[in-house]
Design goal:
Blueprint (H helix, E strand, L loop, with lengths): L1 H23 L2 H8 L5 H20 L2 E3 L2 E3 L2 H12 L1 H17 L7 H21 L7 H22 L3 H59 L5 H14 L4 E6 L3 E6 L14 H9 L3 E3 L2 H4 L10 E9 L2 E10 L7 H58 L3 H19 L6 E2 H19 L3 E7 L6 E2 L5 H12 L6 E10 L2 E8 L6 H8 L8 H14 L6 E5 L3 E9 L2 H15 L1
Amino acid sequence: MVYSILTGLADRLGLFIVIAYLLSRNKAFKNLILKHRVSLLDKILLSAVFGAFGILGTYMGIPVYGALANSRAVGVIIGGLLGGPLVGVLSGLIAGFHRWAIDVGGFTALACGLSTFTEGTIAGLLHRKLNHGKISWKTALFIGVALELLQMVIILLVAKPFSAALALVKVIWFPMTSVNAMGIAIFIIIVENIFREQERVGAYQAQLALDIASETLPYLRQGLSEFSAYRTAKIIYEKADYDAVAITDNRQILAHIGVGEDHHRTGLDVLTRATRRALETGECQIASNKEEIECFNGECPLKSAVIVPLMEKDQVIGCLKLYRTRENSITSIDIRLAQGLAQLFSTQLELSRMEHQARLLAKAELRALQSQINPHFLFNALNTIISICRKDPEQARALLIYLGEFFRKNLSSGRELVPLEQEIEHVKAYLAIEQARFGERLKVVFEIDPVTGVMVPPLILQPLVENAVKHGLLPKKEGGMVIIKAKNVTGGMEITVADDGVGMDENTLEGILSHKVSLDRIGLCNVNERLESLYGKESRLKISSKPMLGTVVKFFIPAAAKNWREADGAYSAAGR
């Protein structure tokens, strides 16, 4: 008889497994299992589902000695393990009450009803101890064996007469314990597949977040504005499955795409209390229903949302909001995606701020360089021209033209890049005045390859030439020669400023590039930093120098610099 009960229960268990598998493919059931926050209604639904499983197990039972060998416990134990105490109690109550009600007065009716309720309750209590339902099939198998043996004990204690109860337990304990425990383990394996599928979806969401971040980078690098927020929200809305996407700063709505556009309008103050809480606390907010969103518009169709703050350093500067039109529809995947996007966006915005500050600093340093050059050079140039005026008015006139040209270019160099030809003309104007001042002591040679459209930072050559003249040649009694070269090389252009002056020792050279220099060398450090900032380490200054033999300074301008900077400037202008 034991064998026939065992095979009979195993056959019936197969139907259970098929139903469980089909249920696991149902989107609504998967959402119930995966939800970050399960509502009371969700728990009641789960209780009804697993209670129905228990009732089905009763009807599929095998009559034995006036009782039933059955798989009723499988449904209620699974319900408790997955849904928690309330689901375990309710599903156990549903299936247990049904078992008692269909056989009122049967010698095992009360015992079986009580044991079913007890098994569901204990499984629900174990839910919190076992990572909220995420348990291995081995643990589920052990729990199934333990709770089925507990059922046998309850039958022995409650069912009367005891002799009949004992005879029944001797026959059913092994088939029910082994088959039902295996059924519970198999059901858990099916549920594990739901979580594994969630992990695969999570990996997809991670890739989606990276794709979105990649597409939004050109916009967010301009900072958080209505334009960048609109483009970012639109990209998320088109790529991800949300009913609405919104971005705010710390005061007003910058963009809202999708459902609710009629009253969540750009420029309005932040409407929902959930968003205000996120801005105030700097913490992720999850709204599971319309009341928790707390939109002032009573007809607002948005019924659940995840709201994550956007940070800049430790300050909240805005929020990213992902909305759905169904209640309790925010899953843990949605939360991870929103948090991942917010972190990526916050990093992009922080980089944008740093780039903006770097540009401001570069401009400030450039102005400092200009202010250093102007008074010093102007004073010497004017003295030179004054001394020439009476002897050679035409030369004085030419020098004044050079001086005017020099300062015109110097003061108009607010642009980020200028043509190399303009920089060379700037240097020629400077050297013409210096040659008039020092006469035969200063010789100049230009070796310039044909240049077309090569763009360089403003004031990138003049400080190098001035250093060559001031620190290289003038300390020599007889003066010397400065050579300016621009040579086309593979991948760009190499620019050289060389002199045959007094040179430098290694300590002085190291001090120049490590900022351990006097203020009169600030121009050289500024040039080096701007080149490296714009083009990378390959373009930093390369300086070679030997005492009394001279100094050679070189740097490299990549061919792609022109197109990249022009395209970036055009794009920024379009974004504004």
